[in-house]
Amino acid sequence: MQTYEHAEAIFERASALQDHLERQDRMLSQGISLVSSRPHPWIEQHRVEPPAQARDQAVGVNGRFAAWITRRMGTMWAFYAAVVFQLTWVGLARRTCSSSTSTRSSSCSSSPAWSSWSSWW
Description:
Blueprint: H1 2-35, H2 41-45, H3 54-57, H4 60-73, H5 76-99, H6 106-110, H7 112-120
């Protein structure tokens, strides 16, 4: 019988402790709700709009193409620089292959890619 009474006393103390913790939790929740912040209504009015994107301004096929290049390369000037570099490279290769016809290497004339470029020039 004594074990039963001890168990009952332990249960009552655990119940009292649970009630105490619940009261403390309610009090803390009330304090937190007083401190919680709400944004001022004017903040919504002063939100910053994101900057305009190149694809938003593109009109027509040329504009869409420029916007696509800008997204891929960073700027149109980077694209122009790459085109000039590549055309210069091809021009130098063409001049090197055509400058001396007697010592022309077989790699200049036999390449299928070179034959398509030489007809273009």
